[in-house]
Amino acid sequence: MAFLGDASVKTKLILTSILSKGVALLVAGVVITSFDLMALREKLVRRMSIQADIVGANCVSALLFSDPKSAETTLAALKADPRIRAAGLYAADRRLFATYLQDPSGETSLLEDSLGETGQGHRLGNDRLVLWRSILFDQKMIGAVVIVSDLSEVGATMTRDVLVFACVLLVSLLIALAISSRLQRSISQPILDLAGVARRVTLEKDYSVRASGGSRDEIGSLVVAFNEMLEEIRQQEAELRAARDRLEQRVAERTAQLQVANKELEAFSYSVSHDLRAPLRSIEGFSRALMEDCADGLSESGRDSLQRIVGSTVKMGQLIDGLLNLSRVTRTEVRGRSVDLSSLAGEIWAELKDSERDRPVECVIAAGAIAEGDPALLRAVLQNLLGNAWKFTRKRTPARIEFGFAEESGERTYFVKDNGAGFDMSYADKLFGAFQRLHGQNEFPGIGIGLATVQRIVSRHGGRVWAIGAPDQGASVYFTLGRGGANGG
Amino acid sequence: MVDKRIVLLVEDNPDDEALTLRALKKNNILNEVIVARDGAEALEYLLGTNGKSGKIRLEQLAVVLLDLKLPKVNGLEVLRRVRADPRTKLLPIVVLTSSKEEKDLVSAYDSGANSYVQKPVEFADFVRAAGHLGLYWLVTNAPPPVTR
After folding, report:
1. CATH code at position B115
2. pLDDT class of A186 with cuts at 50, 70, 90
3. pLDDT per residue as tens digits for the range B31-77
4. Is-contact A277 B119, C-beta < 8 A?
5. Which has the closest alpha carbon to B6: B52, B54, B65, B48?
6. For the domain that residue A362 is a member of, what is the CATH number?
7. Which of A73, A171, A237, B9 has its CA 20 to 30 A from that of A5?
8. Which residues contact A470 (CB under 8 A, 6 or more apart)?
9. Which residue of A has its CA nearest to B120?
10. Residue A133, CB half-sphere, CA atoms under 13 Å: how many?
11. B-chain residues within 8 Å CB-CB of A274?
12. Cβ contacts (< 8 Å) between B102 and chain A: which residues?
């Protein structure tokens, strides 16, 4: 049925039905007609051989007495059978003794060479049957009779048979067409319904529809399987939806928790800012008061102790401020705008120089470092980095600090380089942690919060920060600000 | 004239109170300092209660040093109520607090503070700040005309 590839199921079903019926009828018709033909011929041969036997028996005396006239009279009786076109009586020496011709005007040739070699037999041609019989008398062959019969009656019967058969074929095919186009509906309709349901499911994404069709045949089980598949899809879809809902709910819960946590952090920072500082102020203030009021009554070690108390409270104040700054960096919103880092670096540099006027430090600031980001936060970055460079070049002469930028594979990298104390690269990962310090307090003072702040700011701008250095070889801190600078939420 | 003018210090922490008074004294500011230990007390000093006028004679008051974190009525509320009252709406008020949070700064100025000073941890800095404050508000600054 490959040639029907694109035809509808309906057409296929009808054609299948009609073709199979047609072929069956055709085969049956051909077989029946063939048998009919054979039977007709056998019947004719049998009848002619009876005629020949009768004629033979009646012509014995005419042959014995060489009386052709009486023989021809006997033969003329064959006129009663219109199928017999000619007949001949032969003598024992195969000489034609007497003849009968249905049409006396011609056809004498019909009898020429018609006598077979054997005693009796027949030959079937296209249009005639030639039958011969020996005539015996006293066990001795005295002659033979030949009958030539017309086969047109057989042909007519065959034509009629074929016509009848064709009519039967046509009528039965029409009936088959009517029946099969009625029957195909029971097959194609459920399939069409199924296709309709499938289309609806695809278009409307409605997995709750079901195909109908309760028959118990293959189509029925197809419908059942299809419905089961739909049910499966519906369940999975429902599960997916539920999972998504759960996820959304979880996200909402987490967001709410995060907001609460943020609020708490804010409250905490506020509290730290207020309440942690107050007792420090008392310790520091009253230690000072003690130093001033009772300096004379205190021993050298007593004064030293007080000095240490004061020093610690100052340090703790700085720690608190550093922590607050760090948490503020995390909490405040990053506002993105165009910032001229070069001029910012210049301002910070001027402040640093003002703080220690007598230090000879060479500073190189590359012009035109325009970045996208939060001005206050980026200022804090440069303040920390340049401040560190300033601090760690204290023991170097000549000290050199450089701020610049480089473009590499489409990404801009900013850097602050110095030729100061540097650091051991094996501690590079500790540099950016809060309260991580690589130098002793008496070597370089500090609280270890600067680079942690830098890292937070940079990552909130969607960038990265890293450092390269070696002990006594100086340090270089590099940072990027990500795309647009202000997409770090 | 300078001697007669008084300062109202609103401070709940006795340590801070002592340190503030000491810092003022260190700067030879010998004006009378009245201390209110919570917001309600401060309001009573300034505005009085139940229609009676406050215990302080407003025309003598040079400046109010106001902490933000106070029991009963907090500093911002005190500020708002003082500003809402016609008798004290022009009164010089300096917020003197531990916090340097932007939120506090904004709301303090928003509520009508004239100045905002963070208490430094180091006493030496505190003394310096107190000196500046005393000198400025008691000497340099011309007070608003008393509206009564």
Report:
1. 3.40.50.2300
2. confident
3. 889 999 998 899 988 888 766 677 778 888 889 999 988 888 889 99
4. yes
5. B65
6. 3.30.565.10
7. A171
8. A422, A423, A424, A425
9. A281
10. 20
11. 68-69, 97-99
12. 328
Q: Are residues A365 and A450 in the same domain?
A: yes
Query: Minimal CA–CA distance to A152: which of A133, A125, A131, A132?
Result: A125
The number of folded domains in chain B is 1
Domains identified in chain A, total number: 3
Of A456, A449, A448, the residue nearest A479 (C-alpha): A456
Range of the domain at B88: 6-140
Is A313 part of the contact surface with chain B (CB cutoff 8 Å)? yes
C-beta of residue B138 within 8 angstroms of C-beta of residue B29: yes
Pick the residue of B98, B106, B119, B128 with the most A CBs within 10 A to test the interface with A by mutation. B98
- Residue A200 falls inside a structural domain: no
CB of B33 closer than 8 Å to CB of B61:
no
Domain of A82, in residue numbers: 2-103+112-169
Residue B148 lies in a domain: no
Q: Write the single-letter amino acid at A291.
A: M
pLDDT, residue A386, reads 92
Q: What is the three-class DSSP state of A22?
A: helix
User: In sequence order, which residues have a C-beta less than 8 Å from that of residue A173 and are 6 or more positions away?
Assistant: A18, A21, A22, A25
Which chain B positions have a beta carbon within 8 Å of A328's beta carbon?
102
* Cα-to-chain-centroid distance, residue A267: 54
Confirm if A282 and B16 have CB atoms less than 8 A apart.
yes
Structure tokens at B119: 């208490």
C-alpha–C-alpha distance, residues A480 and A238, integer Å: 45
